[in-house]
Structures are given as C-alpha cells and as structure tokens.
Amino acid sequence: MASPEQSQDVNKDVGVMNIEELDASDFERRLSYLNIDFNQLTSEKNKEHAAIRQQLGSSYNFKMRSEARRLQSFLSYIKLSSWCPKQMAAAGFYFTGVELSVQCFCCGLVFCTSSLRTPPLEDHVKHNATCGFVQGKDVGNIPKYEIRVQQPDSSQRDLQEYEAEELRLKSFTGWPFYARIVPSELSSAGFLFTGTRDTVQCFSCMGCLGNWEENDDPWKEHAKWFPECMFLRSKKSFEDIKQYISTYNGFSGIMGKHFAAVTEDRTFPTITTYTSKNIFEDENVRLDSFKKWPENAHANPTSLAEAGFYYTGITDNVKCFTCGVCIHSFEPGDDLYTEHKKFSPACAFLHKLSHAKDEQIPNLSAQHLWKRRECHQIQDHGTPHVRWMYEAIKLQSQLVDVYCNAKFSKLLPFSDSSHVSLDLNSLFADISVTTKDTTNQRLAQLTLPDILSDLRDITMIEGEAGSGKTALLRKIAILWASGCCPMLSRFTLVFYISFPLIEKQQTLSNIICKQLIGPASSLTEDILGELMGQLKNQILFLVDNYGVLDFVPESIENLLLKNPWNRVSIAVTVRTDQGRKLRQHARSILSIQDFPLYSSVYICRQLFSHDMPRIEKFLLELISSKTFQAALKTPLFTLSLCVLWVQDPNEEMSSELSVCKAYLMHTILKHPNAREIVEDLVSACGELALMGLFQSKFYFTNEDLCAACVKTEDVLKAGLLSKFTWQRLQSTYSFFHASFQEFLAAKRMSDLLDSTDEVQKEKGFSYLQQINTFLKFAGRFYYFLNYCCLFSPKSATIIISHLFALLDNSEAFDCQSGTKVHLEHHPNLACLEQMLTVVNSRPTGFRLSLVTHMLLIFSIEAAYDGNSLAMCAPIILQFLKGKEITVHFSSTNKCFFTFLKDYPEGLSQIKSLRLSVVGEREEAPDLTLRCQEDLTSIWGIPTVEEDYSMAFQLATETQAQMKDYRRKNIAGFSHFDLNAGNHRINVLKVKTTGNIIKWEKALFNFRIFFPLSHHIELKVTDSPGFFERLGACIEIYKDSFVKCTLCRMELNSAEQELILHMTSLQSLKISGMLAPEHIIGHMDCFTQLKELTLDLSDECEVIGILPDGFKNLHSLEKLMFNNVSMETHSSRLAQFLTGFSNLTSFHLNCTVCPDFQKIMAAVSQNGKIQEIQLYGIVFPDHGIVSLASVLSLMTQLKVLNIERQLCDSMDTGQMFVQALPSLELLEELKLPSGSAIKEMAIPIILQLQYLPNLRVIHFTNDTLNDSSLLELANASRAGHLRNIQSLNLSANHDITQSGWRSFFQTLDNLLIINELNIYRIYTYQHKTDPLTLKALVQCVSRLHSLTCLVMHGWLLDEKDLEMFNTMKENHPKAKSFMLLWQWSLPFGPTVKK
Predict the structure, then answer these.
(1) 273: exposed, middle or buried (Cβ count in 10 Å: 0-12, 13-18, 19+)
(2) Does 799 share its domain with 876?
(3) CB-based contacts of 823, cutoff 8 Å, min separation 6
(4) Where are the alpha helices (DSSP H) in 632-701?
(5) Ranges 11-25, 139-153, 464-478, 1120-1134: which has the least confidence
(6) For residue 1095, what are the β-bridge partners?
C-alpha cells in the first residue's frame, strides 16, 4: 500500500522556497511612467515574500486537492486582484490567509503577488515546471464539478469473487498516497480497489465511488448513493440507512443511479488553460471600432474589418488583431489584403483566410457530443422502454443541440448598439453569490459548484439588472449540455426559459418549443406532463428574468404552484424589486452581490489581451480610485466600458465617468424605437438625482419619484433605477451607484443652465448658488461640477464663472460641510476636505494660494475635457489677472502649461508664477519616537479619567505605517513649443525640494520659463547639484534673479561664486545649513539687497566674516540673525546697523550678546524700525532694560515679539510698562515671561488703552493670575481691545476655574476677534466644571467673529461637547467655527476607571 511519502515522488525538488516573483528590470521597462524606485521595492518585497514561504512550508496539502475547496478558500480573498479565484483554483492554488499569498496544494509553490500579464497557470509552470499537478500526473486533484459517484469500467466482470473481505483488502495494492482513508474501512464496507485513482467499487451492487477525503465514512457514502445494495442491507438496518441518508450534506433526494454515465477517458485531470480571447476576433466588433473613422480616409471600414483590421483612433491608423501590424496612409485603390500581406506575410489570419475553403470546421452538435459522451441514461430499471422514454431521449438531443450552439452561448448585452459579446463557453467570470434567510439576511457565500450541487425544488436567484443572472442560468445549461459537469448529469432534461419572451396564453410545452427546440417539435402538454411525472427531480427548469412582464403566464404560475407534487427542480432568476411573490414558493434564496473587481479585471484582460498597456492603466486607475471600484458593481458596467474602448479607440479614460457615459449611451441606444421616451425618462431621473444630490439623499421613496415625475415601472425596466424592499417595509429606490446619480444630476443641471426657458434657467442657477463654499466645491459637489462641465460649453462657462466669483466672497471659506454622506461614495475626498477645513479656518496666504490653484486646475481640465476651451478661455484669462499662481512640474498640472501654450497672453496676466519641483528626500528619522522621548522627558505621560479619554488622540507617523516607493514625477516639456511673443511673466518663483533625479527634464523646463520672466525668485531646499547643473542657465539670466533662498544645502566654492554673480538680488535667505563663508565674505556684492536672513544649523561666528563693505548696503530693510554667535563681534554688528538707515525689521536669536545695548541703540536710530523679534533666553533683565530704554524712540514699531525672553526684575518690568504708551502704532505684542511680568500684568494691561492699533496680544507662560485675567476682560469691556483679532492666553496654569469663569462672564466688545487661545499643557489639564463651561459658551456666543477656539487641556465629556454644538448652530460663524481641544500625541494617556 502507498504511504504519504509518495507525494514526494510527483514533485521534483526545484527549490520552490527560493523563487523571486518580482523583477525590477521588468517593472522599469513597462511601468517607468509611475516613477517608482523598483529596485528598492522589489528587493524589500522579495524578502517579505521569502519570510512568508518559510512560514508556510512546501508540503502536500491533502485538504486542498479539491478544486471546489480551493475555490471556497478564496471567498475571504480581496476583491481586487489581477488574478481571479477561478484561474487560481484551476491552476492548483488556494488562499492561505497569510497576507495575500496563494499556494499550490501539490508542490507547495507560494505566490505573494499576482501578475496581470501572465495567468497563474503560466506562472506556475514558469517557477516550477516539475510540479506533478502541472505535468498532469495523478496527484489527487479533484476537478470542481466532480462528484463522489463514479462510473464503473465498461468491461464489467463478476465481482462475487470479492465477497470475502480479506480478498477485497488485498485489492488495495497501489492505493494512492493522497487518499486519506484507510483501505480496511473501505473493504469492510464492501468496496474493492479498481486500480484507477482512488475509485472503489462495491462487489454486490457494482456501485463506484471515488474522490475520498479524510474522515469520510464509507458506510454513510454507501448508504447515500446506493441504498438498495443487498450487501449494505445485510450489514445495516433500515433505520441506520435512513439515518445515514438524512444526515448527508448535499444532493438531497439524489442517488447514484441518477447520474449519467460518462464514457470519455478521464484518467487524470486535464489542466484548463485560459487562452485569452481577443475582442477583435469578431469581425462585427472590428467594424464597430470604425464609428469615428475619418470621413476623408481612403479605405472602406467594412473592407478593413474583413481584412482583419480594427481602428486605433489615430488618423487612419489600423491594426491587425492577430499579427499586430499597423498600417496607415491609405491611398485610393489600395487592395487591403495585399497591403496586409506586404507588411505581415506570416500573419496567421491571412493564412487562415487563404485556406478557408479547404478547412472543414467541426460543428459542436448533439451528434458530435454523443460520440464523445453517452446521452443521459434514463434510469427506470423496472419500466420497459415506453413512449415517454423515447421522447425524453429525443428531447434531450434537441436541447443539447440548442445549448451547444454559439447563438445560445454568446451574450450580446448591447445588441442594438454594439456587437461586443461574451461567449459563455470560454469566458465566464466569477460572481459573488450569497444565501439568504426568509428575513433577507445574508447567511453564507457560495461558489458555482456550491450552487450546482444544491439545485432542487425551487431556487430563487435575485440580483440587480445586469448583475449576471442570465449568464448564470445559461452557463448552467451549457455545462449540462457539454457533458463535462458530472454534478449536472443527474438531470436528464434542462429547460432554459426566458420569461420576457413568453406570450400570455402560451402553454409550457409551447414555450419550450418556441424558445428552444422549434415549433415543428412533437412535444405536447401530455408528453411534457408524463415526462415530469416520470423523471421528477431529474428535470431542471431555468426560468430567467421572472416578473419583468406585466403578467405571470398561467403555465409558469402552475409550474411553481404545483411543484410540491411535480417535484421537478426549478431555478428562477428575478430582479431585486420583483421577488416578493416568488419568495413564498422558494426553498432557498440566493442573492447576487456586487461583481468582484477581480472578475472585471479578468473580463477586460481576456478581451483586450492584445492591448496590455491599456489594461495596466485600467488596473492602476482601479486600484487608486474607490469611486471607480464601486461603479463597476455589475458585469454589465464592465462590458459597457469595453464597448466604449471599442467604439472610441482613442478614449484612454478608465474611470467611473467612462462607465456612466457608456451605460447611459447604451441604455438609450438599446431602445431605438422609443428613443424620445427613454430620453424623457433620463431627464426625469436627472431631476430626481439633482434633487437628491442637494439633499444628500441617495435612496428614494415613491413620494420622491412622484415629485420628480418619474414613471416607476418604466425607469425600472430601462435599468435607470433599482428597487429594494426590506422586510416588507416601504419600497426604496436608488441609482446603481452614487456616481451615476451625480452623472444624471449633472446632465440635468446642464440642461437647465442651457435652457432658453427663463424659469428652467433660474432653477439651475438656484442650485448652483447653493454651492457657495470652497469646501462644497472641492468635496461634496466636486464630481458633480466636473460632470456638469462636460455636457455643454455654455454650462461650463456659467459654472466656472460662479466658482471664480467665490474668491471675492469671504464666506466661501466657511469650513463646515454639513454632511459626510458623500464620503461613503468618494472616500478619496476625505483628506482634501480635512486639509481645507484646517486651512480655511485661518486666513493665510497659503489658503488663498491653495484654493486659487484648485479652481484654476479644475477649470482648465474641465474646459479641455468638455471641448469648451474656446468659450472658457476668456474667463480663465480674466481670472489669472493679478493672481499669484502656484503649480508643480508634474503631470497632474500639465494642463496649466498646455493652456499657457494655447493662450500665451496668460503669462502677462499673472502677477507671479510659482513653479515647484519635488525630488527625492533622505529618509527622515522616526519623528514619532523622537517626539515621544522629548515630551515624556519634559512633561511625562498624562493621566485621565475614562470619561475624558477623548481629549487625547494617538498621532501615528504615516511613514512608519506605509513605505513610499514613489519617485517624484517631473513632467517633461520637450514638446512644449511655446511661442510667447511679447508676453512675459512678471515674477517667476522657482521652488525645488529634494534630490532631482531627472535633471534633463528639469533643466529643459527651466530653460523654457527663465527667458519668459522679468524677475526670478529661487528657493532651493536640500537639492544637491542644483546650482552646478543649472550654472550655464543661471549665468545667462543672472540679472533676472531678485531673490534666493538656500535651505539645507552644501555648496562648493564654484556654486557659491555662481550665486555671487546674482548681483541683482534683493533678498537672500540662508537657513538650516553651515555658513557659506565665500558668500558671506563677499556679501557687499549684493548692492541692491533689501532682505538678509542667516538662520544657520550650527552657531557660527559670521559677523567677523562679513566684509567691511557690508555697511554700505543702504537698501537693507530686513535683517535676521538666527543661531549666529555674537560673543566676539556683537559691537561690529552694532556698527553695521548704524549704516542701515532703511531698516524696518530686525530679528535676533543668539545665546550671548555682550553689546546688546549698542545693537538696540543702533536699531532705534534710523526711526523707521517697524518690527523687532528677539528669541532665546539670552538677555535676562538687562536685555529687557536695553530694549525698554530705546522703545520710546521706536515710534513706527508695529511688531514687538519678545515672548521667549525672561523678566524677573521689578525695576525692569516697570521700565517696560512705562515705555509701552509710546508705541501708538503697535499691532502685535508678544510679552515676555517671568515673575516681574506676572507681577506687573495689571499695569501692562492698563497701558493697552494707549495702543489703539493692537491686533495680536500674547499673554502666555504663567504671566497671568485670576486678578490680572479679570482686568484684561475689563479692558475689553471698556473698548480698549476693540481691534484685537487674536488673543493668546495659553499655558497660564495658575488661573483657577473661578478666575476663568469671571473672565468669560466679563469678556466682551471684541468685535473682530477670530482666534482665542486658552490651552493648557496636558499635565496641567483640568475638568471643566459646568458653570465655567456655561460661561465660556455664552462668551463665545458674544464673540460674533470668532472662528477658532483653542482649549487643549480642558477636559470635556460628551455633554460638554453637545452644549458647544448647540451654541454653534446659532453662532454667526457656525460654518467656519473650529473647536480645538484634543491633544494629538505619539503615545496614549494612562486611563483611570
């Protein structure tokens, strides 16, 4: 007898553990446009995959030798993959559950990735051609449609010699290793080994069984399939046999005798090879591709299609579907076959045409099939061959003929508008099917073998229109007729009936004759009735699309009602909205779910195998867009996309928009005789969609449909809406996907805006006016607006003008979206909305730049995509006037540069153009860990009660969760033939960050834009080699550079010298780097310099390096020294400052400054100083004294920031207080900390009445107590703070809740304040008592301009937040108000119960 070790003999050791799936060079060759570092990606992924292989091992998996079980393992597999479960299971693989790995049951080969270009079987052969399964050896594979019952050897012999059990046991010599059942158990149950696979045969009843699995009970199997066996009955009681049968799982009521004999040789399984079917093999489909064939082309489309060509969409370029040769530039009189042969003499299609007359193509008819397999055996051993048996055999033959005909297997979903079809013989994709209970709750997922094994009584199969119901029933009929599905051989007759084709008074026999076997058939009601009575559950009716007619024919009604007596098997498909009546008859209910994405990929991959670049882009788009994924919810939508690709070959778009366009087009075209009616239905549905969209409603009631004048039954038949009924409640309707609703709403909106009817047009404007914020534009209505602009140039201009006008409306920056329902359908918008919410809450230059960029790119893309550029261009050019535009050198912004090429006058309209180039960056350290160490070392870990744990959110470092292998993309403009004429950009701002990989593209782009600019500003961050590579270009345009910012750069002497040639610089900033001594030593070269910033990485003595001529830079207005040593040369700086008569801003941050008093004196002398910012705790007391002594001379001062200074001396504090009233023009005051400031807080507050222009006040870091805080509130009530916009009182931990309560109750008369900051460090957090919170809420309600309240460290519970939200509803800034109260930390708090 064989042992399990025999499994090693069928697999030679080829090192399946050591394979590498990913090849960097292959990725680089095919997907270079993705700009991914494939070397790094493949290296790291291959290591991860090797670890998974080690974890899984490579031993034979006995449980997974069943293909049906392998299929079941994929029920928990991801829905988006380039391989589908059917392919993987057929190639021997099952899903392991470890990451996304699949493993061969036989050789143990593991794949952790799937290839789009090669199917799993091909990759299986590539990586282990010695696998016994691949080689077709008997390794125990059980095909998915196989059954336990096997057919006996045709050469039957007397088996009575095996009546003795010991002789039966001896027959098991050579018992296969994979059969995990002990031979002694089989021989005891009456079985002997046949010598074929694991098939055994009963010596008594002659019944054969095989495909044994571990823990099978031979007695139970014997009783189930052959209950009449005399040996069985002699060993087991009637009750035992009955018990065995009743507890058997599957094939209820079926015995071994019901299965037909299949005489074809099936020694070992033949592995199914999935050959790709080129969609253009069909001549009619090739002809469909010529719908946009140029009218002036010299070749005839019909002739081209006959010659094997399809249209590529480019001029008159055509391509052969077989050899791939492309031919163009046809001339009158060209012989297309000759031209084809001239350029591709070895083309297989041409060879086939030339030998067509000599070839005899076999016809797959019933007669042919019967040579291959015996017809179904009519099992009625006690009945003579009577008339009904003859009729059954004849009818069976006729049905097989029908189902094997190409007319039956070919599905044409859009037969009135396209010849694109699915041949169910060769292309049937996996669908997702679940069982349901009587309350409509899902129970379990099923595979196709699961469905086939349980077809009995009445099975109801529900699904939306286009979900694959028809394909499923036809596939069942085809499988039955093919003879290769043992599961279905239990049915003698299978009748496929299309419910929509039934006439009202037709009998069942008449329906079968007319739809299947022909009206000349002799089938009558009596004969059919007798067949049903004799065969019962050996007859299967497949009733397709039940309920779509206005009536149910009596014949079908009787078939269902009388089935408890007839006991035939019936499978009925029905739309989701029409299954209520059918449910009462059904024994089991199956529901077709959303079409798996891997099946969409499978269909497209099979049909367009000749165009893999298109399929790769399709897959990438599918991976990146959740919206696109959701739109492909049925096979019909996938096919509509394929039709679009055929009929519009130049259409590269793979998105939800493509699906919507194609589906709507074919919905209209498939009703050629009722086009106007269908268009009216589309318009009514558009009205419903539009109404729903603006109410955030995606499910509708009958009342909603009535209000929009939607004819319910008509739109359901047209497939524009779906109907659902849950647990007998009110019916609900929806569009197949939110994108389709948005698409129809956009079409209706466009019709309204285009209308000549003023009422209709005003209705459209009223909808448009509701899109009144940037958050609504970029979020909830983004896709809708985009679709609107595609339908007509007029509506595009109206929409773009409306969006541009939002920039002039301050309320457009409100950041409350009001609803998040749309994010369920467009989750990709969530990040953008979150960013806009944060950015819009604070008026900054970045906010304006961001929304300007978004509006500009949206409008240009919409204009190009909708072919409305001519009408939209003047509006866009007007929008550009005086704007500061920021764009990136990337493919996503290429439309903007294309617009400038088409309309170069836009260059002179722009105030400034910022071009951003992002390269590779060095891997940053783990900021989360570093931040955690810093915070815990200073403040420790917070402790909080469970009710207030919401005050802390765990901040995660994205980089730690997801490795980013992308290279930064730089769009090339080598074909950007810009003829700008006299148009020039006023200011070009170039910003580069990171290491530029593709310097050639970057240099080319710079050479285009540098000569188009009057002035150039550079900001270069961490970009090694930038100046060296750009040297020649900089040298040419050196006089145009007015600003240069260097950050984290290492410059050699040549690069520093190059920068010194930019003598026209007005601004030079050097930060985060070592001092470039050559530049600093020759700073006097920049005679026009107005702004100098030295913010160095290490404290450096640069003042001594500065040349003496530095003092002659009389134009200098802003001077900033940060991390610059002043220990030895501070007096020299003071000398320089005396010469800067135009200095208005001075920043200083250093640790030691001996001559600080001289510096302050020099700064105050010019009389123009407007801004002073001093950082670092470097001037305790005497520094404040030096500053206070000259403050009265700085009458023009507007900004005083000394927040990081320390003042502990009362005398110093007194001097500072006395100097404050002289600063009448002061706008920002950020006060120092220290005991003296805290003591003098009230006197300081009293001086604020003399500072009427004050906009910003910072009283932070324990400078206030209860008394001084109340005094500040009194000052506000007295009107002394009426111009305050930002009040920062953070980190004042000595203030009690009583003090805060009094402050909130008193604070008033802050008419334009927009930000109030009262946050506390998390270790000083306190629970907010109800009275204090009430006072705060009332206070905020009085501050009508407040948009941001920062109160981290104030612990709030759900009731507290509810009080805030109630107040916000009535606040004037409700739409933009932000409450920031949750700490975001890299570690969690300690939570107390």
Answers:
(1) exposed
(2) yes
(3) 829, 830, 833
(4) 635-647, 656-669, 675-694
(5) 11-25
(6) 1071, 1122
What span, in angstroms and rounded, lies between the C-alpha atoms of 1099 and 1060? 23
Residues 6+ apart with CB under 8 A from 1118: 1090, 1091, 1092, 1093, 1143, 1144, 1145, 1146, 1171
Helix, coil or strand: residue 1070: strand
pLDDT tens-digit series, residues 598-642: 999 999 999 998 888 888 888 988 888 877 888 888 898 888 888
Task: Name the residue among 68, 145, 69 with its Cα closest to residue 486.
Answer: 145
List the Cα angle 1281/1284/1287 in 5-degree steps: 105
Q: Are residues 472 and 561 in the same domain?
A: yes
* Identity at 450, one-letter amino acid code: D
Task: Give the Cα separation of 126 and 165 in Å (integer).
Answer: 47
Distant-in-sequence, close-in-space partners of 952: CB < 8 Å, separation ≥ 6: 942, 944, 1322, 1382, 1383, 1385, 1388, 1389
Instruction: Residue 148: name the closest of 200, 235, 229, 210 by CA.
Output: 210
**Distance in angstroms (rounded) separating the CA atoms of residues 1267 and 357:** 108
Domain boundary among 1040, 1073, 1091: 1040
Residues 1077, 1106: Cα–Cα separation, whole Å: 9
Cα 577 from chain centroid (whole Å): 30
Q: What are phi and psi of 1378, to 5 degrees?
A: -125, 130
The verdict on 861 and 886 lying in the same domain is no
Q: What total number of domains does the chain contain?
A: 7
Taking only the tens place, the pLDDT of each residue in 1212-1248 is 889 999 999 999 999 999 999 999 999 999 999 999 9
Same domain, 742 and 869: no
CA atoms within 13 A on the CB side of 952: 21
Nearest-angstrom CA–CA distance, 106 and 64: 9
Cβ contacts of residue 835 below 8 Å, gap of 6+?
none
The HSE-up count of residue 833 (CA atoms within 13 Å, CB side) is 20
What is the 3-state secondary structure of 466-482? CCCHHHHHHHHHHHHHH
DSSP assignment letter at 697: -
Q: Among candidates 1381, 1390, 1340, 1342, which has minimal Cα distance to 1358?
A: 1381
Tell me what the mean pLDDT of segment 1318-1337 comes to: 90
Asked if 276 and 609 touch (Cβ cutoff 8 Å), the reply is yes
Whether residue 348 sits in one domain with residue 442: no
Q: Tell me: do 64 and 171 sit in the same domain.
A: no
Compute the distance between CA of residue 145 and CA of residue 1306 in angstroms, rounded to an integer.
Answer: 82
| Residue-range definition of the domain harbouring residue 153 | 149-258
Q: For residues 451 and 567, state if they share a domain.
A: yes
Specify if 1210 maps to a domain.
no
The β-bridge partners of 1100 are 1124
Q: Are 996 and 1023 in contact (CB under 8 A)?
A: yes
Q: Are 1143 and 1169 in contact, with CB atoms under 8 Å apart?
A: yes
Q: Is 1029 exposed, middle or buried (0-12, 13-18, 19+ CB in 10 A)?
A: middle
Question: At CA 101, angle to CA 97 and CA 105, rounded to 5?
Answer: 85
pLDDT at position 985, please?
92
| 329: CATH | 1.10.1170.10
Q: How far is CA 576 from CA 406, 411, 685, in A?
A: 29, 21, 19
Residue carrying the six token digits 């064989």: 2
Phi then psi for 1037, rounded to 5 degrees?
A: -110, 25
Residues 208, 111 share a domain: no
Position 1007 scores a pLDDT of: 83
The pair of structure tokens assigned to 355 is: 């030998």
Rounded to an integer, what distance in angstroms lies between the CA atom of residue 1207 and that of residue 1235?
7
In degrees rounded to 5, what are phi and psi of residue 799?
-70, -45
What's 720-750 look like in SS3? Answer: CCEEECCCCCCCEEECCCHHHHHHHHHHHHH
What gap in Å lies between CA 166 and CA 183, rounded to an integer? 11
